[in-house]
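Quick log. Single chain, no ligands specified.
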Amino acid sequence: MGLKDVTAPCSKRDLAHLGAGEVGYIRKISGDDVSRCFPEAPDLDPGIDLWALFGADGTPILLTDNRSSTFFKAAEDDLRTVSLH
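-> predicted structure:
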């Protein structure tokens, strides 16, 4: 019996929902990007570096100046964190 090709195209929308509610990612974010990702945040110094936790679909969850806080929040929300490069 031969192997079947089980790969199928995955849309951006499908990919965005992969891991929803189970996976989150943490990344450094500059003050310049804060208003784009966290529109409700106050104006910040553009040169400041902060840490952000996002859901797998890119939904912003937490903005902080302390990287450890993002891991604590992810654990609190039962999210497994992944690294993005």
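The chain has a mean pLDDT of 80.
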